[in-house]
Amino acid sequence: MSDLDLQTHTHRRFNPLTEEWVLVSPHRTARPWQGQVEDVTTEQAPRFDAACYMCPGNRRANGAINPEYGSTFVFDNDFPALRPDTPLAVSGDGLRMARGETGLCRVVCFSPRHDLTLARMSRPSIRAVVDVWVSELEAIGRAPAIGYVQIFENRGAMMGASNPHPHGQIWASADMPNEPLKEQLAQQAYLEKNGHDLLGDYLEREQQSEERIVCANEHFVALVPFWAVWPFETLVLPTRHVSGLDDLDDAERDGLSDIIKRFTVRYDNLFHTPFPYSMGFHQRPTDGDSHPAWRLHTHFYPPLLRSATVRKFMVGYEMLGTAQRDTTPEQAAARLRAMSEHHYLGDADDVFAAG
Ligand code: H2U
Ligand code: ZN
């Protein structure tokens, strides 16, 4: 690898978690852009929106009334993609296979405040969200019919979020979804071959060079992975080998809240806009086994490329060939590292969740 100048020449990088390649073309950043420009909302959302189906006390689409919640609020998705009562029948002939899938979908409101985002919430309020993620994982994962719990957030209209109210989702299924399944197979193979966990070994190497690390605390490291596909993609890794959110102790849950706060603020500061992204946790399945190959981690996949209005599209070559990026992960990490950890809009005084 020492012969190849990764900041100058086109090359492929290997993602050991998915066993897929990404094409990196560092010289392409100077190309002109005459394509789609996204709208940016500069309008500040109100603290409470009477038309929002997630604000406290409001009516949801199916008629249920939200409680006057003061911190977080979780409800069963009124339009769930996965349902507990689906028959598990199998049909097909090998080339046309189908099988019933059971599960459930939940919606997690992060805050009663309609105008906030994780980046602008206080650490105690984010900690309340972490605690809800853990308790939901434990409660849902206990059901024998549930094999995997996917916790995620789609943030911003650009990522398809249906509502600006700060919220995430939980989809739990009998079978493992594609992405964690790929990662599980790769992590198991790595552990068998090397006797250590893949992401633990990877983190150790990144800590030696630091060129892709954005920020860190005692318990978590946020970095732009060597194989990042999205321009400002990040991976958040625990420094201790834990395989699920439910393994985190009290100090580690605070550590996770701190790291989420600090680098989502950096994201927003980068283009002075609420940074859109899809984020989610990958962790061991909930089949009751210990899964020592797994290391819990969080992926952040943000689409913005060069400003608040110009995004990266995953089309053409990405769809038909291989994922491709123009800037290098090292350049992205350096830019995020240079950002302030004070939000450009200021922090909110959402102390209600601390009590
Ligand atoms: P997204 O913004 O990530 O789409 O999440 C919002 C979810 O909220 C979405 O899955 C659900 C939608 O089905 N929802 C309800 O459960 N009740 C409602 O009243 C409206 C939206
Ligand atoms: Zn709202």
Describe this structure in words.
- This protein has six helices and 14 strands.
- The protein is an alpha+beta fold and 355 residues long.
- The chain has one domain: HIT-like (HIT family, subunit A).
- It has a nine-stranded antiparallel beta sheet with strand order 3-6-8-7-12-13-11-10-9, sandwiched between helices. The protein has a three-stranded mixed beta sheet with strand order 1-2-14.
- α1 (123-141) packs across α4.
- The mean pLDDT is 92.
- The site of 5,6-dihydrouridine-5'-monophosphate (H2U) has 12 residues, from loops.
- Zinc ion binds next to loops.
Question: What's the arrangement of strands in the largest beta sheet?
Answer: 3-6-8-7-12-13-11-10-9
Count of discrete domains: 1
Poorly predicted runs: none
* CA radius of gyration: 21 Å
Could you give a short account of the major beta sheet? 9 strands, antiparallel
Strand content range: 15-25%
Query: What quaternary form is this?
Result: single chain
What is the fold-level CATH name, i.e. the topology? HIT family, subunit A
**Small molecules bound:** 5,6-dihydrouridine-5'-monophosphate, zinc ion
What is the number of E strands? 14
Structural class: alpha+beta
Q: Mind telling me which CATH architecture this is?
A: 2-Layer Sandwich
Annotation field: number of helices = 6
Element pattern in H and E = EEEEEEHEEHHEEEHEEHEH
**General form:** globular
Helix proportion: 10-25%
